[in-house]
Amino acid sequence: MVEYYDITDLGTLPGGTSSTAGNINDTGQIVGYSQVGGGNDHAFLWTPNTPLQDLGTLPGGSNSGAFGISVCGLIAGHSTFAGGGTNTHAFLWSSAGGMQDLGTLAGDDGSAAGAINACGQVVGNSSRSAGGNLHAFIWRKTAGMVGLGVLPGFTDSGTHDINNLGQVVGYCASAGAPNRGFVWTRAAGIQPVGTLPGGLGSDAVGINDLGEIVGNSDSGDVNTPHAVLWNRAGVAQDLGVLAGGTWSGAFAINVFGTVVGNANYAGAGSHAFVWSARSGMRDLNSLIPANSGWQLQGAVAINVAGQIVGIGTRNGQQDAFRLTPRCICGNAA
Known about the structure:
Layout: E1 5-9, E2 19-24, E3 30-37, E4 40-47, E5 50-54, E6 64-69, E7 75-80, E8 88-94, E9 98-103, E10 110-116, E11 122-127, E12 134-140, E13 144-147, E14 156-162, E15 168-174, E16 177-185, E17 189-192, E18 202-207, E19 213-217, E20 226-230, E21 236-238, E22 248-253, E23 259-264, E24 270-276, E25 280-283, E26 294-302, E27 308-314, E28 317-325
Antiparallel strand pairs: 1-28, 2-3, 3-4, 4-5, 6-7, 7-8, 8-9, 10-11, 11-12, 12-13, 14-15, 15-16, 16-17, 18-19, 19-20, 20-21, 22-23, 23-24, 24-25, 26-27, 27-28
């Protein structure tokens, strides 16, 4: 059982005052975005042996962010571009080729990518800025960008994550109705995930290579969602809340079933949490050195080694962090 985490401040790009972590792969490489001065953000790559690397933007762009990284170092995200104004296009970055514009679905003029798997498959959202709907997509090198469709009764869809088997999770939305989480496969297409008892809405945010899904669901009160783990049979488990809190949401799960996310704490602001079947939900702020100056607000990703990345403040400054477990007995946190 993890008893303690060492914390690493990922810092900022030169001239920046803040950074945000987007994801971590199983080799410990981390992506996100950081201020670069002038109010702009640039996507970054962090490795254990090098400082933040500025990934730049698409040609003519001023802002970018990275949100997915494969085990071989391919990075997915989105960036503004020449003539796009505040519009963004999804990108795929590699050390050999730099930043590649992935374009949009037909009829759209904007896109954003949020995840990539070991096969180089990218998922994200495509839309039209002038009042169009949001369309979930998968991008493959051989087929380009393909829409994933929408659940019956909904008008919009968006993705959050893809595993190495090509299973995609996300949500569908429609004006005036609660969102509904989905899982997509090439064989079955887009399928809904359930809710907690009495719930109307859900969101599927993370999926591991065992097909276990995490996210959130309401249970009759849409203002107080709870973090949820859906097992491979689709059964929803309520992961609860932190002591004194009312809501929680899960963002990621590794192959050992350890879940990370954020939750409110005794009516206060957001705290990062880690959950396991053995230990339940624990506030990550209680598992780092006392008087560190950190307030961990949210955990967004976890890798096979149990390393966690997220966002917090250190002595009042917003920075991305990495947590590394120091004491482990078994694989679960």
